Amino acid sequence: xxxxxxxxxxxxxxxxxxxxxxxxxxxxxxxxxxxxxxxxxxxxxxxxxxxxxxxxxxxxxxxxxxxxxxxxxxxxxxxxxxxxxxxxxxxxxxxxxxxxxxxxxxxxxxxxxxxxxxxxxxxxxxxxxxxxxxxxxxxxxxxxxxxxxxxxxxxxxxxxxxxxxxxxxxxxxxxxxxxxxxxxxxxxxxxxxxxxxxxxxxxxxxxxxxxxxxxxxxxxxxxxxxxxxxxxxxxxxxxxxxxxxxxxxxxxxxxxxxxxxxxxxxxxxxxxxxxxxxxxxxxxxxxxxxxxxxxxxxxxxxxxxxxxxxxxxxxxxxxxxxxxxxxxxxxxxxxxxxxxxxxxxxxxxxxxxxxxxxxxxxxxxxxxxxxxxxxxxxxxxxxxxxxxxxxxxxxxxxxxxxxxxxxxxxxxxxxxxxxxxxxxxxxxxxxxxxxxxxxxxxxxxxxxxxxxxxxxxxxxxxxxxxxxxxxxxxxxxxxxxxxxxxxxxxxxxxxxxxxxxxxxxxxxxxxxxxxxxxxxxxxxxxxxxxxxxxxxxxxxxxxxxxxxxxxxxxxxxxxxxxxxxxxxxxxxxxxxxxxxxxxxxxxxxxxxxxxxxxxxxxxxxxxxxxxxxxxxxxxxxxxxxxxxxxxxxxxxxxxxxxxxxxxxxxxxxxxxxxxxxxxxxxxxxxxxxxxxxxxxxxxxxxxxxxxxxxxxxxxxxxxxxxxxxxxxxxxxxxxxxxxxxxxxxxxxxxxxxxxxxxxxxxxxxxxxxxxxxxxxxxxxxxxxxxxxxxxxxxxxxxxxxxxxxxxxxxxxxxxxxxxxxxxxxxxxxxxxxxxxxxxxxxxxxxxxxxxxxxxxxxxxxxxxxxxxxxxxxxxxxxxxxxxxxxxxxxxxxx
Length: 878
Ligand code: ARG
Ligand code: ZN
Known about the structure:
Blueprint: E1 9-10, E2 19-29, E3 35-45, E4 56-59, E5 64-70, E6 73-74, E7 80-82, E8 86-89, E9 95-104, E10 114-118, E11 121-125, E12 145-154, E13 160-163, E14 166-173, E15 177-188, E16 195-198, E17 201-208, E18 214-221, H1 230-247, E19 255-261, E20 268-269, E21 274-278, H2 291-306, E22 315-316, H3 322-340, H4 343-362, E23 374-375, H5 384-401, H6 403-417, E24 421-422, H7 424-435, H8 444-447, E25 453-461, E26 466-474, E27 489-496, E28 502-503, E29 506-507, E30 519-523, E31 527-533, E32 540-543, E33 552-555, H9 559-568, H10 572-592, H11 600-611, H12 617-623, H13 629-634, H14 641-658, H15 660-669, H16 680-697, H17 702-714, H18 718-731, H19 734-747, H20 751-762, H21 769-777, H22 787-800, H23 802-805, H24 811-823, H25 828-834, H26 836-839, H27 846-861, H28 867-877
Parallel strand pairs: 2-12, 18-19, 19-21, 22-24, 25-33
Antiparallel strand pairs: 1-23, 2-3, 3-9, 4-8, 5-6, 5-9, 7-8, 10-11, 11-16, 12-15, 13-16, 14-15, 17-18, 20-21, 25-26, 26-31, 27-28, 27-30, 27-32, 29-31
Helix pairs in contact: 1-2, 2-3, 3-4, 3-5, 4-5, 4-10, 5-6, 6-7, 9-10, 9-11, 10-14, 12-16, 14-16, 15-16, 16-18, 17-18, 18-19, 19-20, 20-22, 24-25, 24-27, 25-28, 27-28
Bound molecules: arginine (ARG) and zinc ion (ZN).
């Protein structure tokens, strides 16, 4: 909690640590109320650092110090100084052993950082700076130590005691206690430390690595969840194999453990050999989890597994380098998902996520580069920019190099930096060395915030058969970066002739004949002119294929161009993008003028897509999914919340009416023969079926309504149940109330499903949702202490329900700031995250602006705000 203004940490101030800690020997006497932590630390002066004043400063927060010994001698109070967040020892030798004993209180730890209680178990979360809440330490990622962990606890309450590495011994102790010792042979930063204590059941399996070693795989859950771990285990084995094949990475320890906990601030955590997961990303069965949940589990399991190399074996020098591990690991999990599922559908999901979450961040007050240069609270920088834009930077480099060279570059990176704490620059240097390229200009992507625009114009010279594209790139200013430099980016271009066939992209000076198809060009200048030869007729440009760079492309496509791309493009991303552009154009016109005519040829294009037997149903579903209301809002100078929502409904009901037969046919045809199967094919068919149902439900009609009700009543998988429930609830009144009641009664014992029950209500566009959410906050199942619950109710309203959250009376904003103020003292990380949707208040009409600003100011005026909330709210009002 801050009293004065918390000050920013700056990349420019980075200094290597003056001391290193070679060995760490920890002993925990675990108990919910009072845990004692005994630490034996071996310090030595870092030869690579400059000598300071001979003192040592350790990080430590909320620790009750009960013993402090240097080289076996208890220190007197005159020899050290204890501050709120540090322990300073006035004089230390070059090499010494330090012994501390502290007391901590897991059951009072509502911030879920450090050691905390989750239901009946004890667990830890140390990234980024949680280890300092466990013991005094050099809590920074460039201090790598070997850890040995002894856990002592009551045998009955905590029969399972886990920590990183290999099991050394298990011993019974007197008075019903036992002791378990773990040793991790790999030096690691303390943010990768973890321990678990609890009465847990385990699912076990094995994996044989490429070199023939057998690895024990274990997933620990509370006993009643044992039958919902199968999907996670399969995903883990797939990920292990894939990383061997695609990146040549073999697992190193003999044991890989995953623990599912129900109170967790984010998705999961890659602690060495002992991943701790939000149970949402482990537990699944077709009756309780949606297809999206199944896919989320597969990708998060893979993500954490991949961190073993990109994060753990090679870690970050400092937290400004967070994208070194997160950007690269997201790239790896995206590639994994693309290869086990559909590449096009995955790429569309990546692009949609970037547009919906990262582009707005880049355009708002919290805009920051992939490698930020300052922060107040590092927890605020686990962002779409660091993760997802960071992944795009890796992807662009992979694209510039091509698969073989890129693999050689990653091989070199793994080999050269294994066991080190490095920077994003070290990564780029490996790419440069292997490829012989100069990426000096490309490096700007890491330092420059903001989403670049590509403004494109084209003309065709029918007599000389020339097609010319003029591309101008520019990036709008962001806070603290008024002037932007041009970037180096891959621009994947295809050209379609009037029959939809690919033309060769032949350029002046080509020595070889170009095959028809995609050509990757490189842009570096503010303006580039591309002159394609040998085109008799004007082609339709298919630009930024595969979303080759994370930019906003502007070009005056005609409707006919877009329809052509939607119909013929081989590139799934560009097909989808064309559909998005058609819908966006229409939706924005309808927003301004509800009497706008919806052209028949556009409707026909969507009909053709629905009828296309050659296209993956998942892709068809994507083509029929409109750009989100919040994305449309970002395209307007002054957001018209109600107009956008009305336009959405209008287009849905127009398609629902004019495509009625085809939608009905798609619905019937994709009624799943294998409703509990979660293969990509089955998932795609359910998506299409449920999208068809949603468009049909936009038109009032008894027949569809009955269909939806029947689906709700008879579905035996959560995807179909929930899709129908959402539509019934949006329908309003009695149509939704009875199903909600039934759903609640059926699932009241399964918290992850009750989360869905809350979120369906909070994300409903029906009138009075804000009031209903306030009511639900008083429901006995609601709790501010469980992040999943907070996200499912408050998060769903504020982040996934534009029209109700931005209700003109300001009630949504009021609710948000009330919750933030109540939550901040309990869990600052979650409180700060909730504020996101009002950060871009400047983009709304005067009335809403004033209301949002008032709530932000009210938050900021509060005396004891966390650094987390302070940073976000103050930057928003700057
Ligand atoms: N490293 C974890 C992951 O991406 C996330 C940790 C997030 N930590 C935080 N303080 N927000 O897999
Ligand atoms: Zn990660």
